[in-house]
Specification:
mainly beta, Immunoglobulin-like, 130 residues, elongated, 15% helix
Length: 130
Amino acid sequence: MKKFLILIISVLLATSVFAQTDIGGPHMTFEKKNHDFGDVKEGDKVTYVFKYKNTGTDTLKVDKVISSCGCTVPENYDRVVAPGASGSISVEFNSANKMGVTNKTLTILSNAKSSQPAITISIRANVISK
Protein backbone atom coordinates (compact mmCIF):
# COMPACT_ATOMS: atom_id res chain seq x y z
CA MET A 1 0.00 0.00 0.00
CA LYS A 2 2.85 2.38 0.84
CA LYS A 3 4.49 1.79 -2.57
CA PHE A 4 1.17 2.33 -4.32
CA LEU A 5 0.66 5.63 -2.48
CA ILE A 6 4.17 6.80 -3.44
CA LEU A 7 3.47 5.85 -7.06
CA ILE A 8 0.20 7.82 -7.10
CA ILE A 9 1.85 10.90 -5.57
CA SER A 10 4.72 10.69 -8.08
CA VAL A 11 2.31 10.49 -11.01
CA LEU A 12 0.29 13.45 -9.71
CA LEU A 13 3.42 15.57 -9.24
CA ALA A 14 4.74 14.69 -12.70
CA THR A 15 1.37 15.49 -14.27
CA SER A 16 1.21 18.81 -12.42
CA VAL A 17 4.70 19.84 -13.57
CA PHE A 18 3.97 18.80 -17.16
CA ALA A 19 0.69 20.73 -17.20
CA GLN A 20 2.46 23.92 -16.05
CA THR A 21 5.19 23.63 -18.69
CA ASP A 22 4.37 25.39 -21.94
CA ILE A 23 5.84 23.19 -24.65
CA GLY A 24 4.14 24.88 -27.59
CA GLY A 25 4.35 28.27 -29.24
CA PRO A 26 7.34 30.32 -30.37
CA HIS A 27 10.47 30.48 -28.20
CA MET A 28 13.39 32.89 -28.66
CA THR A 29 16.73 31.33 -27.68
CA PHE A 30 19.82 33.56 -27.92
CA GLU A 31 23.39 32.38 -28.50
CA LYS A 32 24.28 35.04 -25.91
CA LYS A 33 22.33 37.92 -24.37
CA ASN A 34 25.27 40.15 -23.45
CA HIS A 35 28.14 41.54 -25.51
CA ASP A 36 31.21 43.42 -24.32
CA PHE A 37 32.90 45.59 -26.95
CA GLY A 38 35.90 46.11 -24.65
CA ASP A 39 37.79 49.38 -25.14
CA VAL A 40 36.20 51.73 -27.68
CA LYS A 41 37.63 55.13 -28.63
CA GLU A 42 35.30 58.02 -27.89
CA GLY A 43 33.39 58.93 -31.05
CA ASP A 44 33.65 55.48 -32.67
CA LYS A 45 30.58 53.56 -33.81
CA VAL A 46 30.69 49.82 -33.22
CA THR A 47 28.22 47.14 -34.24
CA TYR A 48 27.34 43.70 -32.90
CA VAL A 49 24.83 41.16 -34.22
CA PHE A 50 22.88 39.17 -31.61
CA LYS A 51 21.85 35.78 -33.03
CA TYR A 52 18.90 33.74 -31.88
CA LYS A 53 16.83 30.76 -32.91
CA ASN A 54 13.11 30.10 -32.77
CA THR A 55 13.21 26.88 -30.74
CA GLY A 56 9.43 26.76 -30.51
CA THR A 57 6.69 25.16 -32.57
CA ASP A 58 5.01 28.30 -33.97
CA THR A 59 6.17 31.32 -35.97
CA LEU A 60 8.02 33.93 -33.90
CA LYS A 61 7.02 37.54 -34.53
CA VAL A 62 9.27 40.33 -33.23
CA ASP A 63 7.08 43.38 -32.74
CA LYS A 64 9.64 45.91 -31.56
CA VAL A 65 13.18 46.32 -30.23
CA ILE A 66 13.44 49.21 -27.77
CA SER A 67 16.78 50.78 -26.84
CA SER A 68 17.55 52.25 -23.42
CA CYS A 69 19.41 55.15 -25.08
CA GLY A 70 19.58 56.99 -28.39
CA CYS A 71 23.27 56.03 -28.66
CA THR A 72 22.30 52.37 -29.02
CA VAL A 73 20.30 51.69 -32.16
CA PRO A 74 18.76 48.38 -33.20
CA GLU A 75 19.30 48.50 -36.95
CA ASN A 76 18.22 45.45 -38.89
CA TYR A 77 16.32 42.67 -37.24
CA ASP A 78 14.25 39.75 -38.43
CA ARG A 79 10.59 40.39 -37.73
CA VAL A 80 9.24 36.91 -38.57
CA VAL A 81 11.14 33.67 -37.87
CA ALA A 82 9.76 30.21 -38.64
CA PRO A 83 10.08 27.35 -36.13
CA GLY A 84 13.63 25.99 -36.21
CA ALA A 85 14.94 28.99 -38.16
CA SER A 86 17.44 31.58 -36.98
CA GLY A 87 17.21 35.35 -36.75
CA SER A 88 19.40 38.26 -35.75
CA ILE A 89 19.31 41.75 -34.27
CA SER A 90 22.04 44.16 -35.36
CA VAL A 91 22.92 46.81 -32.77
CA GLU A 92 25.06 49.91 -33.33
CA PHE A 93 26.59 51.75 -30.37
CA ASN A 94 27.76 55.35 -30.89
CA SER A 95 30.36 56.26 -28.28
CA ALA A 96 30.27 60.01 -29.01
CA ASN A 97 30.11 62.07 -25.81
CA LYS A 98 30.51 58.96 -23.64
CA MET A 99 33.41 58.19 -21.33
CA GLY A 100 34.24 55.22 -19.13
CA VAL A 101 32.25 52.03 -18.70
CA THR A 102 28.88 52.21 -20.45
CA ASN A 103 26.11 49.63 -20.19
CA LYS A 104 23.05 49.75 -22.47
CA THR A 105 20.06 47.44 -22.87
CA LEU A 106 17.62 46.55 -25.60
CA THR A 107 14.17 45.17 -24.84
CA ILE A 108 12.62 42.79 -27.36
CA LEU A 109 8.84 42.62 -27.56
CA SER A 110 7.56 39.55 -29.38
CA ASN A 111 5.04 36.75 -29.23
CA ALA A 112 7.62 34.39 -27.68
CA LYS A 113 6.28 32.20 -24.90
CA SER A 114 8.21 32.78 -21.71
CA SER A 115 7.78 33.70 -18.10
CA GLN A 116 8.57 37.33 -19.01
CA PRO A 117 6.60 39.65 -21.30
CA ALA A 118 9.86 40.91 -22.84
CA ILE A 119 13.42 39.70 -23.34
CA THR A 120 16.37 41.97 -22.52
CA ILE A 121 19.79 41.87 -24.17
CA SER A 122 22.70 44.17 -23.34
CA ILE A 123 25.95 45.66 -24.53
CA ARG A 124 28.89 47.05 -22.61
CA ALA A 125 31.83 49.21 -23.66
CA ASN A 126 34.72 50.96 -21.96
CA VAL A 127 34.91 54.28 -23.79
CA ILE A 128 38.40 55.76 -23.77
CA SER A 129 39.63 59.13 -25.08
CA LYS A 130 41.12 59.33 -28.56
